[in-house]
Amino acid sequence: MTTIDQRYSDPEAVAAGWTETRAVLEQAELAWLSTVQPDGRPHVTPVAPVWFEDAAYFHTGPAEQKAANLRANPHVILTTGCNRWDAGLDVVIEGDAVRVTDEDLLKRLAEVWATKWDRRWQLEVRDGGFRHAGFASHAFEITPTRIHAHSKGDPFAHTRHTF
């Protein structure tokens, strides 16, 4: 369901459509992943995500801080968009990051990364994860529970997509 939140929108604003919101997710080269550290403090780091079959995916090394955080708490926020005040659409995904180990899905995701990045990302599927440039990484899926789309410019609007 797509709704506009009038509390945070100009009176003449309209909701950002799902097609426009999904396009931002599909085209994002960079997003900011927010996780929760074991002591409760937030941790934010950039990732190179892909959007595939109604979910966001990223990968990270098993020893990295975000991987350690996710072992203790799967709740995440993934944010992308642009850094302009007067134009664009910022998108925020709320959900849980779940490790992907299914080899068929990993192979499809490796192809999605390769295609999106003009073959610069060459991910090899091995041992329930990826190998890239000699390093192992784990893939994670974020199935959205809610997505917020913030239209900027005139008029400003706050749209909520719920699933």
CATH homologous superfamily label: Electron Transport, Fmn-binding Protein, Chain A
The CATH topology: Pnp Oxidase, Chain A
Element string (H = helix, E = strand): EHEEEEHEEHEEEE
The CATH architecture would be Roll
Number of helices: 3
Number of domains: 1
Average pLDDT level: 96
Q: Could you estimate the helical fraction of the residues in percent?
A: 10-25%
Supply the CATH class. Mainly Beta
Distance between the termini: 7 Å
Concise summary:
With 163 residues, this protein is an alpha+beta fold. The protein is built from 3 helices and 11 strands, in the order E-H-E-E-E-E-H-E-E-H-E-E-E-E.
Description:
The protein is α+β, with helices and mostly antiparallel strands and 163 residues long. The chain has a single domain, classed as Pnp Oxidase, Chain A, CATH 2.30.110.10. It is 20% helix and 44% strand. The chain contains 3 helices and 11 strands; from the N terminus they run βαββββαββαββββ. Strands 1, 2, 3, 4, 5, 6, 7, 8, 9, 10 and 11 form an 11-stranded antiparallel sheet that branches. Strand 6 and strand 7 form a beta hairpin. The model has no long low-confidence stretch (mean pLDDT 96).
Break the fold down into its secondary structure elements and pairings.
Layout: E1 2-4, H1 18-27, E2 31-36, E3 42-47, E4 50-52, E5 55-60, H2 65-72, E6 75-80, E7 89-100, H3 103-116, E8 124-126, E9 129-132, E10 135-151, E11 157-162
Antiparallel strand pairs: 1-11, 2-3, 2-6, 4-5, 5-10, 6-7, 7-10, 8-9, 9-10, 10-11
